[in-house]
Amino acid sequence: MEHASNTDYVRAKSKYHHGDLREALLQASYDLVEMHGAENFTLAEACRLAGVSTAAPYKHFKDRDEVLGLIVTRGFDRLSEQSMEAVEAAGIGTLAGIVAMGQAYVRFAVENEKLFRLMFGQHPVLKTDEVVMGEGMGCFSKVIEQVAIYCERNGVSGNPDEIAVRLWTFVHGAASLLIDGDYAVVAPGLDVDALIERTSPSLLGLT
Question: Which terminus of the chain is less hemmed in, N or C, by CB atoms within 10 Å?
Answer without folding.
Answer: C
